[in-house]
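## Example record

The block below lists the input lines for one assembly entry, exactly as stored, with component labels intact.
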Amino acid sequence: MANPTPTLPTPTSAYGASSRAWSWRRTLSPTGNMGDAVFRALLFGSAFVLLLIFGAMIAAIASNSVPSMRAFGFGFLTGQVWSPIRGEFGALPFIYGTVMSSLIALVISVPLSLGVAVFLVEQAPRRLARPVTFLVELLAAIPSVVFGLWGIFVLAPFLREHVQPPLANWFGWLPLFQGTVTGIGLLTGGIILAIMITPIISAVVRDVLAAVPMSQREAALALGATKWETTRVVLANGGPGIAGAIILGLGRAIGETMAVTMLIGNRPQISLSLFEPSYTIASVLANEFTEASDELYLSALIQLGLILFLVTFVINAVARVLVWSVTRGTSGTARA
Amino acid sequence: MIHLRKTSRATTALLLTGVVSLALACSPARDGATTTSSGAATGGVVRLQGAGATFPNPLYQKWLSEYGKTNANAQIDYQSVGSGAGIKQIQEQTIDFGGTDKPMNDEELKKAPGELLHIPTVLGAVVVTYNLQGVTETLSFSPDVLTDIFLGKITKWNDARIKADNATINLPDAPITVVHRSDGSGTTAVFTDYLSKVSPEWKEKVSTGVSVSWPTGQGGKGNEGVTAQVKAQPNTIGYVELAYAEQNKLPIARLKNKAGQFVTPTLDAVTAAAAESLAATPEDMRVSITDAAGASAYPIASYTYILVYKDQKDAAKGKALVDFLWWAVHDGERYTKDLLYAPLPAEVVRRVETKLNSVTSGGKALRSAQ
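Predicted structure tokens for the full assembly:
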């Protein structure tokens, strides 16, 4: 291990191979161990490959979006018409559909996931917790096209017959629940997304809650807190981790393609009604990419991909800032 | 310790090789495609690569497997990647033949480095399907009624104009939900081409194309998506390929043709549409046969084509290609009806023969060179 720095230049050469002045091997492995050097190089390589792929993707997407950026400029983001035949492309309906469907998914999924996770960690007897955990994880592994098929033949008719009519009856005065009830539309797309992201969020939240030290619960109970109050303490402790879990679920919701395409109705429009068909960025890419032959059309689609990337990036950044602002100064909290 | 180091070195070497080969594999795929397609005629086996339209794919695969049984020296492949991709790839010469449902326009032809021939292979039709609970009779539509439904101007099933075509049927007082294709598709191109022909308003507002901006309704991905959405929702109307509708036992509407007859889309009615349009069909076969004249013609029919260069670079490959296409439009046509495609009329087969005879390589005709 000892690598004594020579106090005198060696007789052969001061800059030869044996020089201690600089060598890449020593840079990679300050301890001078060859195995460590290789290990470091491997790790560095893995990280670098990831960075390279990321960079290459951004570069390709950005450079291919240039024709569309030139043609439409900022108007691409605010345009509401999507007409490949006339060469008119506006992204707003797709951005709206993506954000709204993900929002619906979160509104439904977050309380549900928290409920599942809290039940599994705090309440369920071990005999029940095990199989339920297994089932939740199994749900996360179902391919999205299966969710789509189930959605179209089971969920959509169920919503059309038993959920949407009462919603229209009681809350029809809200613009959210007006319009023709068909079963296919923004609401159905959002609900299928909620079902798809619930296993992810609840699995991560379960791990986060399990990581909260038992002493916290014991302290709360010792102070005479009820089960509910103890759970609140545990949830507060796992705050950042829970936020991380929600971001993870949101990421999946925004990028989900197949199931949403099958249920959202694929209509580029901005309508306040949740019953009306809508369209997401991922869906329009999946739908129109294969037959987009002219350059501007293709470029507009690629620019939509770029926007999807930016939307994801912004949401992630905002969420991280939120987490950071909540956890500033606290330490020892459980993270995802 | 020494042993462990050796293994890690070996692993590194292995991993580095993996990364390098991965990087090499990621270099533009086009180079790979050209090398494989230009490296033909090795050991007497000719390899041909085709790609394009998805609509005729089941038939083409059947043709290729049948043709391969008797012609082992020609290995032909067809990938169903869509008409748009087929046109693009034949322009870039990364494939030996392309497949498309819509004829290439002049601009697209100009982008190709040589003269491209449109070889019609078979005919298809787009049918109107619906889901009306309690209605078992076959519905009939006039062109103007159909257009106004898809324009969103007729919104109820018991509208007086729908009733006028279906006097004996008890139509429900329910809103109409239109279901159209959401993905870019030749099926949409044919359907919108028909609506543009029968309605100036459609032509002006929506026009013709593989993806259009629909005035009303919801979109489904692929024939299967539209079918699922029509089946799962009552009071819907949509359009799918004839073969798909038949296989899935969907209700299929009768349409009123140019001669004023209500026609059921049978394979014979589709072939009739091509035969009746021959007088107006140009020499290069780039034609739309929707809204065809003739009492027996079904109005939403179309050709599907294979695209080949008139001047083939490689004589052996060119010969294998024209021989296969010759076989396809003669012997191959007997497989069409089983797979629910309409065969070409005899006159069109004659025109295809002329076209195939005109394919050359190095100035020599390939068909007569046997």
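The CA atoms of residues 12 and 196 of chain B lie 64 Å apart. The longest strand of chain B covers residues 116-131.
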